[in-house]
């Protein structure tokens, strides 16, 4: 696990904590790791968890399937990002979405109670991690509000424009690669894939966008 310490140092959870301090805290936080192949579930709906997780390799999707198998992608988890913090509160209930590895992934687990209960030595670095956890919850809520903004648009075109505009701002460029294939993008925006593909072609014909697979250029 120590090979991931340089990566952990750059995560939101351990922001401001040195590598030596992170190394010392791994045991205190009962850190462990798990490896998941493509298509394996990290978490399933209905599970109860006692850990906060950080993805140190690969890519994950937070998703929800209804009774008939229709899928909605809630969010994408990239390397260095934290998840599971929404269940940090006591009696927070079971996990409401699945977390699926979309490529081979490695996840690190940190005991929630060990994080939110400052150790007897009350070291500054542990207190800083608790503070960072609060900031991470705020960031998580911001992303959910952002997605609600996409979902509130009435038409498929409006949803595409809102999403692609936000990606251009995030990359600070009119050219960027999105983290979805066509079906995944449709699942993320909760639209029909065929209708979305047709709308993208119309947007291209209207001179709004150019694209090839997951690569886009806004005009």
Summarize the structure.
This protein is an alpha+beta fold and 219 residues long.
Description:
The protein has about 220 residues and is α+β, with helices and mostly antiparallel strands. It folds into two domains: about 1-145, Sandwich (Jelly Rolls); about 155-219, Winged helix-like DNA-binding domain superfamily/Winged helix DNA-binding domain (Arc Repressor Mutant, subunit A), CATH 1.10.10. The protein contains seven helices and eleven strands. The chain has helices spanning about 5-10, 20-30, 110-115, 125-150, 155-170, 180-190, 195-205; strands at about 30-35, 40-45, 50-55, 60-65, 70-75, 80-85, 100, 105-110, 175, 210, 215-219. Helix 4 packs antiparallel against helix 5 (about 155-170).
| Cα separation of the termini | 45 Å
How would a textbook summarize the main sheet? 4 strands, antiparallel
Whole-number radius of gyration? 19 Å
The number of E-state strands comes to 11
CATH T-level fold name of the largest domain: Jelly Rolls
Name the helicity range: 25-40%
Helix tally equals: 7
Number of domains: 2
H-E order? HHEEEEEEEEHHHEHHEE
What would CATH call the architecture of the largest domain?
Sandwich
Net shape:
elongated
Spans of at least 5 consecutive residues whose pLDDT stays below 50 are none
Mean pLDDT: 89
User: How big a fraction of the residues is strand?
Assistant: 15-25%
Structural class assignment: alpha+beta
Task: Write down the CATH class of the largest domain.
Answer: Mainly Beta
Strand order of the largest sheet: 1-8-3-6
The CATH superfamily of the largest domain bears the name Jelly Rolls
């Amino acid at each position: 696990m120590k090979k991931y310490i340089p990566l952990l140092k750059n995560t939101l959870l351990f922001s401001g904590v040195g590598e030596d301090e992170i190394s010392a805290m791994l045991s205190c936080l009962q850190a462990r790791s798990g490896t998941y192949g493509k298509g394996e579930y990290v978490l399933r709906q209905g599970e109860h968890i006692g850990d906060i997780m950080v993805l140190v390799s690969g890519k994950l999707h937070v998703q929800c399937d209804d009774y008939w198998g229709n899928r909605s992608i809630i969010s994408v988890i990239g390397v260095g990002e934290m998840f599971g913090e929404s269940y940090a509160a006591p009696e927070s209930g079971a996990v409401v979405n699945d977390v699926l590895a979309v490529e081979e992934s490695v996840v690190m687990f940190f005991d929630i109670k060990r994080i939110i209960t400052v150790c007897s030595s009350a070291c500054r670095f542990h207190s800083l991690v608790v503070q960072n956890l609060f900031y991470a919850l705020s960031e998580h809520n911001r992303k959910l509000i952002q997605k609600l903004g996409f979902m509130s648009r009435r038409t498929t075109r409006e949803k595409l424009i809102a999403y692609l505009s936000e990606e251009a701002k995030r990359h600070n460029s009119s050219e960027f690669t999105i983290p979805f294939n066509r079906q995944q993008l449709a699942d993320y925006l909760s639209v029909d894939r065929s209708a979305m593909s047709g709308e993208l072609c119309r947007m291209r014909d209207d001179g709004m966008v150019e694209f090839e697979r997951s690569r886009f250029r806004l005009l």
